[in-house]
Amino acid sequence: xxxxxxxxxxxxxxxxxxxxxxxxxxxxxxxxxxxxxxxxxxxxxxxxxxxxxxxxxxxxxxxxxxxxxxxxxxxxxxxxxxxxxxxxxxxxxxxxxxxxxxxxxxxxxxxxxxxxxxxxxxxxxxxxxxxxxxxxxxxxxxxxxxxxxxxxxxxxxxxxxxxxxxxxxxxxxxxxxxxxxxxxxxxxxxxxxxxxxxxxxxxxxxxxxxxxxxxxxxxxxxxxxxxxxxxxxxxxxxxx
Length: 240
Description:
The protein has about 240 residues and is an alpha+beta fold. The chain has nine helices and six strands. About 50% of the residues lie in helices and about 20% in strands. A hairpin with a 5-residue loop joins strand 3 and strand 4. Helix 6 runs antiparallel to helix 7 and helix 6 runs parallel beside helix 8.
């Protein structure tokens, strides 16, 4: 946090000498190397991590974020895909996988990735645009235009949903609802499904938001209580 990166690397190495199997600390070390501009060294650490057996979806997601921050989008996509393999109902893993495929220009898998994202995050216009880009690059122009148009027809947008896992168990979710074309004071109701690292559903929470005027955003937050840490979510629209 104080940007004393060399000292941080030494502290990580001292710890890892006695705890070599600590995935989180090894990942933190790689992230610090990246902050120092040592991308080659950071990528080597991430590659070593991915070669280890038994990584869970949260761990592979963190590796994907590390690659993404270094603009190594192809490697990021592979890591996010592994995270999705472990937790197929994680909106964040699905979004980052599709976005990484797009930035890596790996368009072959993009339509399916984006369509899965739409299932988990149906009121995200970027999901439709990503699907459109994938279809366009596959030569399916009519289908691309049709699905891209859907992004413009969304009555409201779920903006920047962000899950904060809680160390003692559960997680806190925040976000906002952008009103595109609903009447002022209309009610939006969403059901959020929360998942654990192994993909098991931890429970659901319904969120009700009374929107403001068109083009205004209304924040929301909710907390999922659980005995284990919640690491993923997706939602469905109940109303309107």
